[in-house]
Structures are given as C-alpha cells and as structure tokens.
Amino acid sequence: MRKLHYIxxxxxxxxxxxxxxxxxxxQNIQARKILSLNGRWNYIVxxxxxxxxxxxxxxxxxxxxxxxxxxxxxxxxxxxxxxxxDFDYSPTLNVPxxxxxxxxxxxxxxxxxWYRRKFKADVKAGKRYILYFGAVNYESHVxxxxxxxxxxxxxxxxxxxxxxxxxxxxxxxxxxxxxxSRKQDEIPTINTDWWNYGGITRDVFIAExxxxxxxxxxxxxAKGDAAHLEGYVQLDGKDLSQTVxxxxxxxxxxxxxxxxxxxxxxxxLPVKKLSYWSPENPKxxxxxxxxxxxxxxxxxxxxxxxxxGTDILLNGKSVFLRGISIHDENPLLKGRNRSTGDLKxxxxxxxxxxxxxxxxxHYQHNEEMLRLADEMGLMVWAExxxxxxxxxxxxATYQNAENQLTGLIxxxxxxxxxxxxxxxxxxPVSEPRLKFMxxxxxxxxxxxxxxxxxxxxxxxxxxNEAIVDDPLGEKLDLVSFNEYAGWYWGGDPSGIxxxxxxxxxxxxxxxxxxxxxxxxxxxxxxxxxxxEEYQEAxxxxxxxxxxxxTALRGMTPWILADFRSPRRQHPVYQNFWNRKGLVxxxxxxxxxxxxxxxxxxxxxxxxx
Length: 608
Ligand code: GCU
Hints:
Layout: H1 4-13, E1 33-36, E2 39-45, E3 92-95, E4 112-121, E5 127-133, E6 136-137, E7 139-144, E8 147-153, E9 159-162, E10 170-179, E11 199-200, E12 204-210, E13 213-222, E14 225-236, E15 243-248, E16 253-258, E17 264-270, E18 285-290, E19 295-300, E20 305-308, E21 311-314, E22 317-318, E23 321-326, E24 329-330, E25 335-336, H2 340-352, E26 357-360, H3 367-376, E27 379-383, H4 395-412, E28 418-425, H5 431-447, E29 452-456, E30 460-462, E31 465-468, E32 479-482, E33 500-503, E34 509-513, H6 532-546, E35 552-555, E36 563-564, E37 577-578, H7 591-606
Helix pairs in contact: 2-3, 4-5, 6-7
C-alpha cells in the first residue's frame, strides 16, 4: 500500500542525492530506441497539495538534499501516515491527454493532480536513459522510484531528465505532480482566451542512447544562401572528440566533421542545386549523422526565407501567405490534440481551404504537427505564449519566456515548414514591454538567423484610420497585427470597408487575426450577429478592406476551428466555445470557410 503522506515523510528522512536538473533537449529524440510510457496512469486529485506540503504548509521535498516525491516501500506503516491516498486503488487517466476532457468533475479544475505509472525497463551497461515529456501543463515535479528528478515550468514545451543510474533493470515507477494553476508572473500570465487544459498532454517515453551520443544538430540552408548548408552537430557524453559523418545521399553530400573538445563541430559546406522545399514541392531529404558510437536519421527540407522591401521571398520568389490560425485542440474531442490523427485532421482542413501557411497559436505545438507541416507543404508561424499582460519587469518571468523561446527554436530548428518565430501576441505597449520583447527578438535571432522574427503588434484607431506604429515593429521582420473590424469595433460588416490602415513600417504586412463568431447552422441576414451569414459578410468585407494595403503579403484569420474558452459564455451562441472558427466543433464548414477558400484560389493565381 502506497500512502501519499507516509511515502513523502519517509522520503524526507532519506539522505538522497540532490534532484537531477533537466538535460538539454535531444534533437529528434523520438527517432531513438524508445520505451513509450503512454497509456493509463493512476491519478490522485490534490487541490490542497497534501502530497507536497505538510499541515504546516512546509514542503516535504525542500530539504537540503532536494528530496521529495514517492518512495515505493512496503515498510510497516508509521503512526503519522495518512491513509486517505492510495495510487493502487486510484482511477486512471489516459496519457497523453488533458484531465479536463477526460473526467467531467475536472472540466474546470485548476490545481494539482498526481500521476503514477509503473513500468518495466530493460537497462543495459554502456547506455544512457532519458525520461522525456512532450508537454505537461503547467508546472511539473517529476520523481522516479521515489527520488526527485526535478521540475519544469511551461505548459507547451518538451523537457527531459537523464535517468541513467536511477532507472532500474526491471520494475520502476514514475510520479508526476502536474499543476495547471494560473499565476500572474508566469508565461502565459493569468488571463488568456483558451481553456486551461491541465496534465500530461503529450507523449512520455524513455529513450536509450549510447554513452556518448549525438545530442543536437542543425542542418539548414544558410541565411539567404541557397547554395550553402550551415549548422552544427553537438555530442554529449565522455568521448567528445569524434569524427561525425553527415550524409545526405540524394543531395550528393557526405562529409566528415571533427568535433572539438566540447563535442561540437560546425557545418558549412557548398551544396549543389537542391530541390528546394515549398508548399508546392514539400521535398524532404533523408539525412543521417553517424559518430563512432551513435547514429541518427532525420528527414529535412531545405529552403530560404527572407524579406525584401515589402515582399516575403521563399526560395527567392515573392509569396503570399494564405494562412489560418490554429489552436492545439481537437474540437471534436473538446480537448488537447493527442495523436497524429488529430493533428492531420486540422492540417487537412487547412489544405482544403487552399492554405499554404498556418499560424500555430499561441504556444509551441506538438513536434509531430511540424513534421506533418513539412510533409504536407504548409509554412508555419510558431509562437511562444507571451500573451497579453505579462509581468514585464519580473526577471524570472523574462527568463521563463526566454527558456520557452529557446525550447521552441532548439526543438524545431530543422523543420523547413517553420518560417516565422513569433515572440508574442497582443502585448500592450509600454517601455518595460518593449525592453522585454526586444530582448526576446534578439535571443531568437541569436539562436537562428535563418528565419523571420515577428509578433502580433498593437493597433489603435483614430476616426476611420487604423494606425500601426507599435515601437516593437522596429525590431521585427514583418508588420503583423490583429484587427477585429466588424466584430469588436466598426459596426456591421457592410460598413468596414471605409477603414484605412496607416502603417509606420515599410515591411511585409501579414494580418495575424481578424474574424467573428458564428454558431454553425444558425442562419439569418448578414447584419444578424452570431449567424453564419454575418461571419460570411465579415470575411468578404475584411478581404476588401485589407486589399487596400499594398504591402499585404499574408493573413491568418482567427481561427480554423471553434475552440473552448472560459471567457466565451453566451448561453445561446457560445456555451464556453469561442465561435470564430470556420469549422464547427462537429467538423461542419461554415459559409465563411468558402469565402476564404475562394480568396485564396484567386491569390494563388496572382502569385503563380
Ligand atoms: C485576440 C487573441 C485571441 C483571441 C481572439 C478573440 O486577438 O489573440 O487569442 O481568441 O482575440 O477575441 O477571439
């Protein structure tokens, strides 16, 4: 019998080595030999965090040795234990999967849920073992066989722990304290417009790698140079000075790289004419990296993306980004996406709309989504959840944002589909915000200078003019902003074409959001809010109004599918759904879906 309090109290008395910090993300980790821990995990709902604090609210595992968590011990029970908690007799949740959409009483739950998974491992000498989490929202404390491994903050980015020497050959158990409480100083902050899905929402597995392994690599075309491959390979382990062979057979590339004493080698080599990746030609090459002790295979596309004046150049040719915004949610499930099927459904709807581009809002999406975008030929705007009223003057908040941006770029640097790194959305103009966001923009460029850096900027209005002079625009490659003429302001859709845009910057304009709610199946005239006809008229007039912007080079209207939000409560039309989707929560395409498709068909002809 495992008792929460007894187990933790026992831990406290044990002098166990300090918690292991997170290890740097392993590139393409799912390509390794992995033991999946997906499936049913026992769970205990713990709103008062009894599993973490004693009755004096002293944290069990803040002791000097950093202990904590669960100790699977059958020792006789001491008198202090609680007998109210017992994993063996607790219910189960599916992992991956948020708890809100799996358990009705947890639909709006915000707080701690403890998860436990028992599993068998086959541990070999000379190998290293990495415990990997695709995402846990929001703060997680992770324990293996009763020893604390460490913690993670951030609800959407992957993280991992090196558990070599802690993973047992045979029976093991992993415990996760997942807490989705919203807090002002976090990233995102306390207010958002999406459902606060909590829990282990993406894959969990253990990867086996050699003692010295290929930890990271980047192989992309150099900034604006279609004839040069640039990047690096990074080893981790004891034997760091090795020869690593980079092999791209179909591109006629086979080169030996010598890693230095830190295990790093730079890639910089001329390459003959490649078949460049594009939405029309989503060409991916088989790429392998082999060292003395390791090898890893990937499928990578090669393309250039640049801005020139008010044009966006993909492989040197001006392109219009025919996009749509997407949340990481399956509307049919009412929950976070869980599998390739969910992800493919969303991207297929985008392709049916004749999109060549998607905005994966407002946070890092599943890595599989980016691999599908590579294969299906969709360019991507990837984003960190620096959203709305962040604590701009809090150093820990900035570090958190920078950590999430680093995770976003490090994990997906080899995905040709990603053309934009977005550092945030609709953040109110102020000096502290400008400082915070300017630092993030610099950080993005220092990590990857081959892609564009952007954010959804602020817009203000004066009479019939929408003015875009957000000082952050100076630091970015695109002028991107959200505007809701015809919904939040400007009267009925029929009147919005009178508005003009006064844009301070001579850069490509990509509208990151416009739209309005429509309840699928509710039909009325074009001036009746919530009807499909109103949304249809709004899209038609938005397209006419935005067409006046000569530097317009793309858009990602808000949003592909209806999505859940605690803010959206109209009892007839919303019922906790934001209805700006062009597809309903039953997969029905609304009238406006076809307005956008028709516009994209025309634009495609113009940009042939
Ligand atoms: C904002 C925000 C979205 C939100 C949308 C809306 O611009 O960026 O996250 O859902 O507007 O109001 O529906």
